[in-house]
Design brief:
heterodimer, A: 224 residues, alpha/beta, Rossmann fold, six-stranded mixed β-sheet, four-stranded antiparallel β-sheet, 7 helices, B: 389 residues, alpha+beta, 2 domains, two-stranded antiparallel sheet, 12 helices, 12 strands, Phosphonate-transporting ATPase (chain A), transmembrane transporter activity (chain A)
């Protein structure tokens, strides 16, 4: 299996005035294509920072990040946006759906920025919603959906552009146990279909669904 | 297309807020359209009035337009009846000449009063020279003394529907016999041209004790000779008067003076109204900044799923332009409707350029005041934005 994410000696230092804070310390990490990886850590362990770097929302202070074999350190903001659009799907703890926007339009959002035409967008969005089991909720707005359903819409949105990697940041953090299990079942299916999934969590029960776990503490990976 | 849809969604999501924001632009555009339509209407009206007098008409007035002694000013008027006589005899083959003096007076008929009536003392050639039409009776001739031809307003005020010709009216203490009624002529600058009477200039001079003239009208026999007659009249008058004591003006010159005046008026009034458009633009900017803050998470999410800075910038810019453009369209509709309603009382004309100008300006206001909030949105850091509560 080819390596899709490769972090080498990645550090991240936040400066605020005179005080500096080292969020990541010399991180080396390889994630292979098709892996289902859980990153476990308490808040402040650096797991979110790492996730933002893998998701190309943030730059490392030093070290290199190769995505699918390409160094990402010199890329312009527009190129980064294109890569996020085509190769990465985000799932957030708080869903981040657009209010007053139907499920299908929420799912279509990445396709708009990919320049896909309206008919094709609608078709792909419907497929993605069917894939997460929301075939009957195409035109529902977020306020008409339960938390679990909203997160499924968000997963459909992450899937719609057929990305290489799905990055999930505490995807069950705002859900009850049953909805959480449903969401995890979807991730397991996606894993079986060959998607690379990187998930952040602080719950062991949730991390248990992943096939590989790493633990972070104080900006370092202390257990592979 | 997508951005326009999403802009409309965002605008409709906050209907009241969007409406209040647009109101500034609506009021600005409405007033620009209205003021320009009033001034343009005024210009059209005056132009028509003047053209009705005939294109061949020249007007001699005391004083110099644009000179130290402005016409109608308090400086001594040196234009005399003998100047009119002189002009008439020297220009007999190419033009008709009629002198006029004007006083305001109160008219009485029985117990009815008509105050502030313009009393014109004119010569018998007057109706031909400035193309006046009578609806009743006749104009006076050389042998008439103490007779009057009255305007429609005077007729309505004194006689109503009753008999007019042959009636004796009192003009500032002297009795005159009404022999004719003029057709309606309307108003210029709020001055009712029909609230006037015409009496023989000799009677007027005797009654009011004046020999200075307000105006000498000269009507050239052909349009081609207008310039020539103007030159000759000027030369004749120069023999007795100095150059700044009189002006001989053609209709063309009068029209161009009016064009200048209404042009400046349009600019000044339109400019004042345009200030309210700028105020409206500040309102849009304010609300767009609020909107950017409110939708920080949305911006973060859009960036995470692949929106480039320019996509975000365009989204907010188009939203601002849609707000101002919609306000502009509503303002144009309101302005046209109100000017149509006012048009039943005054002449109004909505020139097409004022519609294009005000729509263009309101859209421009959207661009100018939408750019800063849009750029702010496009520069938001996605991580910070996603964390925003």
């Amino acid at each position: 299996m080819s390596v899709i994410v490769k972090l080498s000696k990645v550090t991240k230092i936040y400066l605020s005035g005179e005080v500096s804070f080292q969020a990541l310390k010399d991180i080396d990490l390889e994630v292979k294509k098709g892996e289902f990886l859980a990153i476990i850590g308490a808040s402040g362990s650096g797991k979110s920072t790492m996730m933002n770097i893998i998701g190309l929302l943030d730059h490392p202070t030093s070290g290199t990040y190769k995505l699918d074999g390409h160094d990402t350190s010199r890329l312009q903001e527009n190129t980064l946006a294109e890569i996020r659009n085509s190769k990465i799907g985000f799932v957030f703890q708080s869903f981040n759906l657009l209010a007053r926007t139907s499920a299908i339009d929420n799912v279509s959002l990445p396709l708009i920025y990919a320049g896909v035409d309206s008919a094709e967008r609608s078709k792909k969005a419907k497929q993605a919603l069917e894939q997460v089991g929301l075939a009957d909720k195409f035109s529902s707005h977020p306020n008409q959906l339960s938390g679990g359903q909203q997160q499924k819409v968000a997963i459909a949105r992450a899937l719609v552009n057929n990305p290489e990697i799905i990055l999930a940041d505490e995807p069950t953090g705002n859900l009850d146990t049953r909805s959480g299990e449903e969401v995890m079942a979807i991730f397991e299916n996606l894993h079986k279909e060959g998607k690379t999934i990187i998930m952040i969590t602080h719950e062991e029960d949730i991390a248990h669904h992943a096939k590989r776990k790493i633990r972070m503490k104080d900006g370092e990976i202390w257990k592979q | 297309m997508e951005t326009i849809n999403s802009a409309l969604t965002a605008i409709l999501a906050n209907k009241l807020r969007s409406f209040l924001t647009m109101l500034g632009i609506v009021i600005g555009v409405t007033s620009v359209i209205l003021l320009i339509s009033l001034v343009t209407g005024l210009k059209t009206y005056i132009t028509n009035q003047i053209q009705e007098l005939g294109a061949n008409l020249l007007i001699v007035i005391p004083g110099r337009i644009g000179g130290a002694r402005s016409p109608g000013g308090v400086q001594a008027n040196r234009l005399e009846f003998k100047d009119a006589v002189n002009l008439r005899s020297k220009l007999a083959s190419e033009a008709q000449v009629s002198a006029a003096i004007q006083r305001n007076a109160t008219l009485k008929f029985g117990n009815k009063l008509d105050k502030g009536v313009a009393v014109f003392g004119v010569e018998t050639t007057y109706p031909q020279v400035i193309s006046l039409k009578l609806t009743e009776g006749r104009f006076f001739n050389q042998s008439d003394r103490k007779v009057a031809v009255i305007g429609t307003t005077v007729k309505n005020n004194l006689f109503g529907e009753g008999k007019t010709t042959g009636q004796i009216i009192d003009v500032a203490g002297i009795k005159y016999t009404v022999i004719g009624v003029l057709g309606p002529r309307g108003a210029i600058f709020g001055i009712d041209l029909d609230n006037s009477i015409y009496i023989p200039i000799s009677s007027s001079q005797k009654q009011f004790g004046i020999d200075r003239l307000n105006t000498i009208y000269i009507s050239a026999n052909s349009a081609d000779s207008v310039k020539d007659v103007q030159q000759k009249a000027t030369n004749l008058l120069k023999k007795r008067l100095s150059e700044d004591e009189f002006t001989v003006q053609t209709q063309e010159q009068t029209l161009s003076t009016i064009s200048q005046v209404t042009g400046v008026l349009s600019l000044a009034l339109g400019g004042i109204a345009a200030i309210s458009l700028i105020v409206g633009g500040i309102g849009i900017m304010n609300i767009m900044l609020v909107s950017v803050t409110e939708r920080t998470r949305e911006i973060g999410l859009r960036k995470a799923v692949g929106a480039k800075p320019k996509d975000i910038r365009n989204q907010f810019l188009i939203e601002a332009i849609t707000l101002s453009g919609l306000g502009g369209i509503i303002g144009i509709i309101l302005g046209v409707v109100i000017s149509f309603i006012i048009g039943r009382f005054f002449t109004t004309t909505v020139p097409w350029w004022s519609v294009i100008l005000s729509f263009g300006f309101s859209t421009l206001v959207g661009v100018i005041f939408g750019v800063a909030p849009a750029i702010r949105a496009s520069r938001l850091d996605p991580i910070e934005a996603l964390r925003h509560e």
